[in-house]
Amino acid sequence: MNLAVMVYLALLACGVASFVLYYVAQFRIAALLREHHPQQWRIIAEPEQGQASGLRTWMRMQHVLRSTQPRLPELLQDAAITRWFRLWRVMPWLAWACWFAAIFLQWQAR
User: Fold this and answer.
1) 37 within 8 A of 78, measured Cβ to Cβ
2) N or C end of the chain: smaller count of CB under 10 Å?
3) Looking at the predicted structure, is the pLDDT value of residue 65 above 80?
């Protein structure tokens, strides 16, 4: 197999793995919050009005993770949550970089 093809496939696989890890990180952060910080998790999971649902909880979790002030790991000072939060922040950038590099290789092969 040609080296360029192997690099291309590796970049695509790295991109897919990075996106999967991005979603796994969200679920790990939620699980760690449920286990170690049940009071803070209750704030996220239980809405003020209406009934709780998986989609609603996911949207509230996204809001907490994406908020700029103050960041969740800084508030809780939990090393495990901080590690998963860092992965959650970096993985989409790595995935898109891998995919754009793969597209560039494909374009160069023409």
Assistant:
1) yes
2) C
3) yes
Question: What domain range is 42 assigned to?
Answer: 3-108
What is the tens place of the pLDDT at every residue in 48-59?
787 878 888 899
pTM exceeding the 0.90 threshold for the entire prediction: no
Average pLDDT score over residue span 41-47: 85
In 46-78, where does DSSP find H-type helix? 54-66, 72-76
Looking at residue 48, the DSSP 8-state letter turns out to be: S
What six digits make up the tokens of 48?
């003020």
The number of distinct structural domains making up the chain is 1
Q: 39 by DSSP, 3-state: which?
A: helix
Longest pairwise C-alpha distance within the chain:
59
